């Protein structure tokens, strides 16, 4: 599919979904007036991340003060089933991030209510829920539909074990529509995991809002913080103390709220 054809197909796919019209308007504005937002400050962000990054093992053992066992070894049967579920999915969505970090931050926070933006196959959801279910906690998830892949909605969260799904509350809109709906259910959270709109402006909007909903002692995590300078600038402006974790050549940022 060439670029023009993709744009036309995307536009008409949105027209079939009135519930997504607000996001369509935002995308039109972003693509006309704010195309550089996704990579703003990328070079300085990568240098910053590299200069202070630690491994997921060091973060879990030295910061969270917990013995590190990789997530896939903690839940080998569920992990194997999840890999099979992803392999059977006929649509291509985002892959897994640092599942161990996601699991252990929920354990560290003794989380009862966690929130994430971005689901796709549901790897991060799986990791969070593996912790939450032991306390009968709830994971609230916001996930923008893959608008050009008609079958994708059937496979969102497909790697999440069925036994965990009773503790999962999914909202299928862009964050600016999903988050207010989630906040009607819960207005404070023990863990925040951000992995949706990757633009500079989109991140800063969400970071400020989600931080305000995070409990004292809770943990804030954002994936792919080397993609642009949003996380770096957010931390510096608000005097947050970040932990940068390198995993598979990418960087995640974590802040523990005092």
From TrEMBL:
<dbReference type="InterPro" id="IPR029063">
    <property type="entry name" value="SAM-dependent_MTases_sf"/>
</dbReference>
<keyword id="KW-0808">Transferase</keyword>
<dbReference type="GO" id="GO:0008168">
    <property type="term" value="F:methyltransferase activity"/>
</dbReference>
<protein>
    <submittedName>
        <fullName>Methyltransferase</fullName>
    </submittedName>
</protein>
<dbReference type="GO" id="GO:0032259">
    <property type="term" value="P:methylation"/>
</dbReference>
<dbReference type="Pfam" id="PF13578">
    <property type="entry name" value="Methyltransf_24"/>
</dbReference>
<keyword id="KW-0489">Methyltransferase</keyword>
């Amino acid at each position: 599919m060439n670029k023009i054809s993709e744009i036309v197909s995307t536009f008409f796919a949105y027209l079939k979904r009135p519930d997504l019209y607000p996001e369509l308007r935002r995308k039109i504005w972003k693509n006309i007036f704010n195309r550089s937002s996704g990579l703003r400050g990328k070079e300085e962000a990568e240098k910053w991340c590299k200069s202070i990054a630690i491994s997921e093992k060091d973060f879990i053992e030295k910061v969270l003060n917990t013995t590190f066992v990789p997530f896939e070894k903690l839940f080998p049967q569920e992990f194997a089933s999840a890999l099979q579920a992803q392999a059977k999915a006929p649509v291509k969505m985002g892959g897994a991030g640092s599942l161990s970090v996601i699991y252990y931050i929920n354990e560290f926070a003794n989380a009862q209510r966690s929130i994430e933006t971005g689901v796709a196959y549901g790897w991060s959801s799986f990791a969070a829920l593996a912790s939450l279910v032991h306390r009968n906690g709830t994971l609230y998830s916001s996930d923008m539909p893959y608008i050009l892949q008609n079958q994708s909605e059937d496979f969102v969260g497909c790697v999440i074990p069925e036994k965990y799904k009773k503790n999962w509350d999914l909202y299928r809109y862009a964050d600016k529509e999903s988050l207010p709906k989630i906040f009607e259910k819960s207005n404070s959270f023990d863990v925040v995991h951000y992995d949706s709109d990757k633009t500079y402006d989109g991140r800063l909007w969400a970071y400020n809002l989600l931080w305000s909903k995070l409990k004292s002692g809770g943990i804030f995590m954002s994936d792919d913080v080397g993609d642009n300078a949003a996380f770096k600038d957010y931390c510096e402006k608000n005097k947050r103390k970040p932990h940068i974790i390198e995993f598979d050549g990418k960087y995640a940022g974590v802040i523990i709220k005092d």
